C-alpha cells in the first residue's frame, strides 16, 4: 500500500542525490509542485528523464539539480525554447548537462520495456536519422523470423518516478483520466514512485476514460492541490497558457531566473507543496 | 516578404503570406484522411481543413487523441480540448505503437527548423558540432517516426535562406536522404515528404531525383523571390502553377479559428 | 469508415476458405453468433487463431471448418474438456487438425506485435518448458544491451479478426467495456475485421472502463443482439453458465454434436445471426 | 480417500478431503499478498483466504482484473463479477506484460493435471507422443509464465498415482526441472513451486535437492496412504506435522462461498 505523505517528506525520502528521476505527464498533469520541491531540497547530480522536458525541467536544470537529461523533445510547448536548457547545453550553465537524446517513440518504448521487466524494446524507429550516431542507447536488432533489421532501445528503470493525478483514496489507489501519456509506464518502470494528487478522497468513483493504479504499485502519495500548475488537471483546472508565455520572460535570462528561484521557490515554506505552488505562480 | 506583410491582391481579399501558407496547407488535405498533426502551423492547417472542405478529416495528436474535433486551435499538442473532443483517448505508447508505426496514418504533418533539398528535416541542433551546438533546438519529438511511418508527409515551414539549406546540420527526420531510392534502401515504408508548403509557394520532390523543386508560387510571389529565399540552387518545375488566392470562406474560417479561445 | 452489414453478408464478404481467422473475446464478449455463421456458410481449411478456443471453436472444429488451430488454452472454462477439439487432435475427426501451441503471454504478445506493425515480440516466456520443442514459432533472442536471452514470437496478422462489442454508432465507431481481453490488438493486427455488436446507436456515450475503436480501423460492423451468448455482454446479459455445462453433453459424442449442428445451425435462417443464436440456445 | 469421503474427526466438525485441501491452501496465503489466481481450486482457496484471515489479499486474474473482490466464486476466470469488483480492469497483454512478467506478484496459484517430483507441471498432453497424445489436455494458458515470474508458486491438486508421477509427460510449466539449481541456471527469477497442497497433505521442495517431500498430513491421513497415492518413492520430512483440522469459521466461510450464486 502506498504511504500518504506530505510532499516535502515524500521528496525527502524518495529522491536522493545522484538518482535517476523521471517526472512524467504529457502536457497534462505535469508534476510541477514536486519538481519545485526537489529544487527546494537542493538535490544534485540527478539524471532527469522525461519525454518532454518543458518548464518543469527548465526549472530543475536552471537550478543546477541535473547532471544529465534523457529526453525526446525539449521546448516550451506553444511558446518556443527552454532557455535554461539551452544555456546548460550551449554554455554549461550553471553546471554541464550531459544529454541522451531519443525520439518520442523510442522513449515511450523504453518506459514500456521498463514497466514490462524486459531489458529492451523493439521499434521501427530512428531509421536514417543522425540520432543513433550520438546516442549509444540506440542499437539494431534482427528479427529471428524474418531477418528484418529494427531498432532496439534499452529499458528505462528510473530510481524514482513522479507523476501527478487527479485523485487517490486513503489506501493510496490512484485515479487519473484525460490524457494519461506515459505515466502508468513510468511508475511501473521505476524502483520507487510518488504520485501527487489534487485530492485524497474516501472512494474513487469510476470516471469514463479513467485509469486506476493500485496502491500496492505506488510507493507514496502526496495531496498537492494545483500541483500540476501551470499544466492542468482535467476536471479540476485548465492549463495556464499565460504562465507558459510568462516563463519565457523568466527563463530567458540567468538573472531573472535566479530571482525567480529565490522569490518563488526558496522563500516559500517547504512544508506545503500546494500553497508553495500557489505562491510560486505569478 | 515577412509574415506580417500583405500580399498584393486584385479583387481577392487581402491576406498575409502566413495565411496563404495555412490555407494552401489545408487544401492539401482530403476528406476522410487520417492526419497525424504536429502543433503550430500543421495544427492550424489541419483544423482549417476540417472547418472547410474536409469536415471528416481524422486528426491524431501524439498526446494520445484519435479523432479530435477541437472548436478552437489547441494551445499545445496536449491541450485538454483535444482529449475532450476525441473519439478515443489512448496512452502515448499506444499512439506510436498501435496507430503510427503500422502505417495506419495517411498524412504526417510536420514543421521544421531546417529543411534541405532532399526534404530531410532538422529540429535538433544548428551548427556542425552536436556536442557544442550554435543553437540547441527542441529535438526530435515524434517526428522521426512520423516521417518514417505515415503514408505521406507534408511539411509546412516558412521559407528563408536560413531554414532552406543545401544540407541540414542534423537529420532529425529522414526525408529522401541523398536522393531517390534512399528510403526504399533503408526499408522505410511511407513515401516520405511529398509536399512542402511555405509562405512563398509549394515544393515537391522531383520524381526522378527526389530533389525538391518549386511547383507552385503563391499569389504575388515571383520565382526569383523564392530562389532568393532558398539555400540551394532551387529548380523550378516546367509545370509551375500559381496558387489560387484564398477565398473569402477560407480566410474567414482561418481567422475565426485563430480568434477563438 | 466501417460498413454496417448484416452478419451473413459480412461473413460472406470477409471470411474466405483457407483464411487465417481470429475470433477473440476473453470469456467476455465471445463472438459466438459469428462463429456459427462461419459454420453455416461451410467455410473450410481455416487456420483458427484464438487464445482460448472454448465452445466457439469446439463448434467450428467439430463442423470441419478448420485445418489448423493456433492457441494457448483449449478447454471448456469451469466445466472441463472440449470434446470436439480432443476428437480432432486425438482422432483427426472430422478432419485432421494441426496445432500451434503457445502460452497466453506468448499469444497476447503475438497480437501486440501484429497490432504494432512489428514482425516479432519479445517476452520472458516458455523457459524450461517443452513448448519450444514442438512449436517452431518460439525462438530465442539476445538483448543487444545486456546479452540476456529472451523468448521471441512472431507477430500474428490474421486475414480476418472477429470480435463482439456492446455498441457501435452509425459511422462504425465501436465501444466495448468490461473485460476487453486482447480484442483491440486482434482487430488492429488483422487485415480485415468484423465487429458484431449488441446494438447500433446514434451516439456512443462515454462509459467508465470503456474503449472506443474508431470506425476507420474496422472493416465491417454487424448488429447481432445476444451475439455473444452463451458468453456475456456486460451491461446487456450475463454469462449462461448452464449452457457451458449443456455443451459438455452435446460436444461429448459425435452423434449428439452432428444433431446439434443440423438442428441449431444449418436449419436456422442464414440471414439473422441474432435470431439464429437465440434458436441455437437450448 | 475419495473426494466425497468424510475425513475422520473427533470433536472437530465433519469435513471432506477437498474442503481440507481448500482450507489448507487458503491458510498458506498471507494478508496483503498479491496473488495470481487460476480458476477452480486456486480460486476457491484464494477467495476463502480473503473471507477469513486475509481480507486485503489482492486477487489478480489473467482475464485482466487487479484486486477483484467477488462476493461469490467466479464461474470462470472471466466471470463478470471479477471486473465489476476490481480496483482496475486492464487488457490481457497488460496483465502479462506490466503485472506478471516484472515480478510484481507474490504468489502464483496453479492447478495441475500431472505433477512430478520436482514440481514440474503438465497440463498439455498425457502420453509420450505430443503429436498423438493419449489424452489432449487444455494446454498452457497463463501457467508457464506464472510459474516463471511469480515470487513463489503454490500448486493445489488432488493427489493420486495418476497425477503425481516420477516425471511429467510434458513440461507445461517449469517447476524445479531435474533438481536444485535448474531454475537459477535458466535465469528464472521467481522461486518456483514452494508449496504443493493436496487433499492428503502438503509437500515442499527439499532445500538441498528441490525434490518434493511430504511435510504435512491432513487430519486422519496416514503417511502410507500419501505414499500410495504418489507415483514416485515419496520422501517424508523428519519434521512432518499434521494439519490443524478446519475450524468452524473456516468451514462455514468455505461452504457459504461455494453456496453463493
Descriptive account of the structure:
The complex is a heterotetramer, with 2 copies of chain A (282 residues) and 2 copies of chain B (261 residues). Chain A has 282 residues and is of the alpha/beta class. In chain A, 32% of the residues lie in helices and 24% in strands. In chain A, α2 links the parallel β2 and β3. In chain A, α3 crosses α4 and α5 crosses α7. The model of chain A is unreliable at 270-282 (pLDDT under 50). Chain B is globular, with a radius of gyration of 18 Å. In chain B, a hairpin with a 3-residue loop joins β12 (193-197) and β13 (201-205). Classes of the chains: A alpha/beta (282), B alpha/beta (261). Chains in contact: A-B, A-C, A-D, B-C, C-D. At the C-D interface, α4 and α5 of C face α3, α4, β9, α5 and α6 of D.
Short structural description:
Chain A is of the alpha/beta class. Helices cover 32% and strands 24% of the residues of chain A.
Question: What keyword list fits this structure?
Answer:
heterotetramer; A: 282 residues; alpha/beta; 10-stranded mixed β-sheet; disordered C terminus; B: 261 residues; 3-stranded mixed β-sheet; 25% helix; globular
Break the fold down into its secondary structure elements and pairings.
The complex is a heterotetramer, with 2 copies of chain A (282 residues) and 2 copies of chain B (261 residues).
Chain A: E1 3-4, H1 7-14, E2 20-23, H2 32-40, E3 46-50, H3 55-62, E4 66-71, E5 75-76, E6 80-81, H4 83-91, E7 98-101, H5 104-115, E8 120-123, H6 131-134, E9 139-142, E10 149-154, E11 160-169, E12 174-176, H7 183-189, E13 192-201, E14 211-213, E15 220-223, H8 241-251, H9 254-266, H10 273-280
Parallel strand pairs in A: 1-15, 2-3, 2-11, 3-4, 4-7, 11-13, 13-15
Antiparallel strand pairs in A: 5-6, 8-10, 9-10, 11-12, 12-14
Chain B: H1 17-27, E1 34-37, H2 41-51, E2 58-61, E3 65-66, H3 80-84, E4 88-89, H4 92-100, E5 107-110, E6 114-116, E7 121-122, E8 125-126, E9 135-136, H5 143-149, E10 152-156, E11 164-165, H6 182-185, E12 193-197, E13 201-205, E14 212-217, H7 223-228, E15 235-242, H8 248-259
Parallel strand pairs in B: 1-2, 1-5, 5-10, 6-11, 10-12, 14-15
Antiparallel strand pairs in B: 2-3, 3-4, 6-7, 8-9, 12-13, 13-14
Helix pairs in contact in B: 1-2, 2-8
